[in-house]
Design a protein that fits this description.
This protein has about 200 residues and is an all-alpha fold. It contains eight helices and no strands. The protein is globular, with a radius of gyration of 17 Å.
């Protein structure tokens, strides 16, 4: 039993420290786009939509962290995705603004506060809309076909990441505090990178 606890603690250590190290290494100003030249075809649009939230560690951690609060169940996924799609749609009508990447970093801090019980889970809804806005910015101005396939890929991968977070964290609820601290540190690092790097 003691060996099992040691192994579990070591796994949690890696679970917390590896994303933390990645948070320091990856600057938020790096493009989260798999194709340097943009998306010109339906396949490129789909692959870009699938890859963008994974390549961007800030988006990946935020989507995965949604399940940590224990409030959101799989039934919430359509609502969460609708808010993300709303944000993505707004990217086609509203101009970008400075400080948006800092908002993404702060969304991880807010998500950690939700997990710790300091903020209500409803805060996640506007935050996922901001993530949707940022995720759609890279595709603004593309032709309709890659645009539609990008949004489809984005919707699919976001659903999978949120589902994975909801299912995964059930095994690690005892380590919520450590994961919350890691999320906060990564969020602050990304925010610092967006503002000062």
């Amino acid at each position: 039993m003691r060996e099992h606890q040691k192994l579990l603690r070591r796994n949690i250590f890696f679970l917390v420290t590896i994303p933390l190290i990645l948070g320091f290494l990856f600057s938020p100003v790096r493009a989260h786009h798999p194709f340097e030249t943009g998306t010109d075809s339906m396949l490129q649009g789909l692959l870009s939509g699938l890859a963008h939230p994974i390549i961007g560690i800030d988006h990946l951690l935020f989507l995965f962290s949604i399940g940590l609060s224990g409030f959101f169940s799989l039934r919430w996924i359509p609502v969460l995705i609708l808010f993300g799609l709303f944000g993505s749609t707004m990217a086609f009508f509203l101009p970008s603004f400075s400080g948006l990447e800092a908002c993404i970093g702060l969304s991880l801090v807010a998500s950690a506060a939700v997990v710790a019980g300091y903020l209500r889970p409803v805060v996640i809804l506007p935050l996922i809309a901001i993530h949707g806005f940022v995720l759609a910015e890279v595709i603004v101005g593309s032709e309709p076909t890659p645009l539609i396939s990008y949004i489809l890929g984005l919707t699919l991968i976001q659903s999978l990441l949120i589902s994975g977070g909801i299912v995964f964290v059930k095994n690690f609820l005892a380590y919520k505090k450590q994961i919350t601290i890691a999320l906060t540190l990564i969020g602050l690092t990304i925010t610092y990178g967006a503002l000062f790097v």
